[in-house]
Structures are given as C-alpha cells and as structure tokens.
Design a protein that fits this description.
Number of strands: 18
Order of helices and strands: EEEEEEEEEEEEEEEEEE
Largest sheet: 4 strands, antiparallel
Shape: elongated
Radius of gyration: 21 Å
Mean pLDDT: 80
Low-confidence stretches: 178-183, 187-201
Number of helices: 0
Helix content: under 10%
Strand order of the largest sheet: 4-5-6-7
Length: 201
C-alpha cells in the first residue's frame, strides 16, 4: 500500500506502520521523486508504481525502492506569472514548484529554483530581468540570465507581488505584509538591508 504527500510512503501491514520511499530533497539520487504527490497508481503483479506530482511523472519497478523520472518531453507547467518580449521571442515565467524559467526562442532553461513566482523583463533593457520565488525573494540579472544576484527584499508572504514603474524602470513597487507597497530604487540596491516597514505609510 502506497500513499503520497510531500514524499511517498509504503506500508506492508495494512497501514499499521509506514516507511518513506522517496526523498524530494535528494535530487539526482535513486530515491528522488519531486515533491507534492498528486496521484499514485500501479500494477502489483509487475511491482510497478507510478507517481504524478508537481514535477511530472515518476516510475518505480521495485515497489518504490528506486525511482525514474519519465517526464522528459512532457510540456506541462502551472505558470503563476510570465512576461515576454515580442522583439526576440524571449519569455520569462514563474512556474509553480518548478522555479523560474527562461525561453530564449528555442528552449526553456531554469534560472531559479523553488516556487517560481512573479517575473519582469526590463522594458528598456532585455538583459535586465527579475525573478522571484516563495516568501518574497527576488533576484536580478543584468546579462540575460547568465548570472543572478539576490536582492535584499525577502521576508514576506508566499506570493509577493512586485511591479516595475511604467515611467522609471529603475523603480520597483514591492508588496509586503501587511498589505502595502514600497518604492524600491532598484539601481541603488547593492546588498544593504531594507529598513523595517511601518504598519501604514
């Protein structure tokens, strides 16, 4: 008997006890299965189990002892937010539980892990992009995604909205808890911590 949550567990005594059969944090290991199981099915005679989750589809042929990712070629993602440039077909998207991903016109590349959230491509300079993930973390690239720098704007709720000013591309408005927005001069953020926000301003 199998069940799934964050990881996959198996019972051989009708649920009296359980043993963990996957490890979402062990990427690359034989027991790695992406987190957040959505469904499990299998064939007991073939000792085969299939797991579908936020990362795709995984298969075990030995009752859950080892797993293989069989998601290659699947074109699936839950996209929270995306932005695009029509000039060169570049698309930057935040994908649920699958990071932020950049389409360069021919293929997708993951540029950030975690829960990919809000993203922005600078309307004055396509080399400058912003990508965020859970709890308000935001990173920036100035070289089309070759390298990214974390910005000191974390410690917020799960999905933290941020937008670029339509007139001044170096000013960003960042949502914070409790619900409020803060003017962030992005050109001046070079590692210093932002001050605590007041309840209202």
């Amino acid at each position: 008997m199998f069940t799934g949550g964050l990881d996959i567990a198996r019972s051989t005594n009708s649920g009296s006890s359980w043993s963990r059969k996957s490890d979402w944090s062990g990427w690359g290991g034989s027991d790695y299965v992406h987190a957040d199981q959505k469904g499990l099915t299998g064939d007991p005679k073939m000792k085969m189990v299939y797991a579908c989750n936020d990362g795709g589809v995984f298969k075990s042929t030995d009752k859950g002892e080892t797993w293989t990712d069989i998601s290659e070629g699947l074109k699936v993602a839950q996209i929270y937010h995306f932005c695009l440039l029509t000039v060169n077909d570049m698309v930057l998207g935040g994908w649920q539980d699958n990071g932020c991903n950049l389409w360069d016109g021919s293929e997708w590349e993951r540029v950030q892990g975690g829960d990919g959230m809000g993203v922005i491509i600078d309307y004055t300079d396509e080399d400058r992009m912003y990508a965020s993930y859970q709890y308000g973390y935001v990173s920036r690239t100035t070289n089309s995604g070759l390298s990214w720098t974390d910005l000191p704007v974390a410690a917020a709720d799960g999905f933290t909205p941020f937008v670029m000013d339509p007139v001044d591309h170096l000013t960003m408005y960042y949502g914070h808890h409790p619900v409020q927005f803060k003017n962030l001069p992005m050109a001046e953020l070079h590692g210093q911590l932002l001050p605590d926000y007041p309840e209202k301003f």
